[in-house]
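$ run holo --ligand "FE2/S2 (inorganic) cluster" --emit tokens
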Amino acid sequence: MTNDDNKRRGIAGGLTNYGDPEFAAYLRRSFARSMGYSSEALARPIVGIANTYSGFNNCHRHFPELVEATKRGVLMAGGLPVEFPTTSLGEVFLNPTSLKFRNLMAMDTEEMIRAQPIDAVVLLGGCDKTVPAQLMAALSANVPAVQVVAGPMSTGRHKGERLGACTDCRRFWARYRAGDVDAAEIETVEGRLATTAGTCAVMGTASTMACISETLGMSLPNSAAIPAVHADRLRNAEESGKRAVELIGTATLRPRDIVTEKSIENAWRVLLAISGSTNAVIHLTAIARRAGVRVDLNRLNRLSDETPVLVNLKPVGDNYMEDFHAGGGVPAVLKEIRDLLHLDVPTVSGKTLRELIAAPLADQVNRTIIRPRTEPVDPDGGLVAVFGTLAPRGAIVKRAAADKKLLEHEGRAVVFSSLEDLSKRIDDPDLDVTADDILVLQNAGPRSAAAMPEAGYLPIPRKLAKAGVKDMVRISDARMSGTAYGAIVLHVAPEAAVGGPLALVKNGDRIKLSVAQRKLDLLVDPAELEKRRKALPQPPKMERRGYDKLYDAHVLQADEGVDFDIF
Ligand code: FES
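-- output --
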């Protein structure tokens, strides 16, 4: 099937195949009328609204309202809004981990955009994997599309301080593990961390992907950080619905016109300047791949050297997304790094980035939240890739979130062979571990049974946590929540489950991390490693079926965005 917009004609587009197109059109009109549409309504262009409301997705609790606002915008511009459900991925409700289903959601969304009579689509997403899935789908379907995000949660209060999911979830859990917080208080905190609709309240993965979508030009300007409960969020949905109608028939504003090598580079810059989530490296790589753009992690390092961290939000800094929105949001960041950006790129708004940046900001920038270039939070970008004998295809470090002295560190490996092994032994009082050791987790990458969960934030062994240890170097082929922090090396590629060098590490081996030199080396004689490789046990044969089988057969490594090789 072709993606040519000229072939899409409202209700008569992409007809069901009965071998008689006129019959198919008549039958469809007849069935559409059963839903109460008039022929005047059915003559309009159709804007599909991909609705990811789900009882298993707390972050999308307000989507019924957002759908109504989007419909209003579509109607105002002369289109017919038609809402349709797709897979929804509520981060904490999925087993083994939401990333495993991102590609399923992308496939579902892409195919429904293609198969249904949709002239343009508004994608309503928010929780971590939903926006990447929708952008991947939009690029593959290449039908005019506008991304609307859920917006961040507002903060809660506890003993006079603000709380926001989920950096504070982790902070309190670490205090509970260390014995600073008792069972009664942790239960109280549990009810105060996530108190409104919307996505996690800090610069986690969802917020990062919202900023990336706006920077790519797939969302309307100044929309990424509007709080979920703010009336502006509804106005953004209304405007997006309107804009989707206007995009129908435009020859040059389809997703693949907007998401290009240049706009992707802009997105990397913003990811670095906001010190965004490490997960976004995987998602932006997958989005770029759908746009036909290959990501080179060495290029990420060059951009990281030139792009300062400007945004002072948790988990790296002190503030929350609601402050970021009030303080200027993405437009203020874009203005601040304008000399580093490709400005002549189109956006769904119909304006180029240059035109958007030239517009005055609605409010004065809060310089505590969004720093000027002359006073950055950090002169270097928040994320870097490291390479070496332990990670030949790279690994990612969020240097802005780490204890700086650990970024240059050599230590003894304490190895956990799986997540089960980790949970069994990490708190064992007899575990042979000191604060200078390096914790290594194997078999948590994309092809492992765990399917690359957010388990890279290995807990500090309880006996060390009780002694006041707050950070240690931790290395794995897993991911880490965008709301977490520490000297954590993630996404090691190739992963242990496909025989990467991570699989060969043994207790007591020396490992050297040098973020300054972008190096991660296993200091073991190559002949010894070869011997260990030959002795590696064959992975157990697993009975797989359905999506699990498709996933296992086609999933790519972290440096290729964990997309499927069939796309
Ligand atoms: Fe949905 Fe954090 S759980 S964004």
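-- notes --
Residues 556 and 562 are 5 Å apart (CA to CA).
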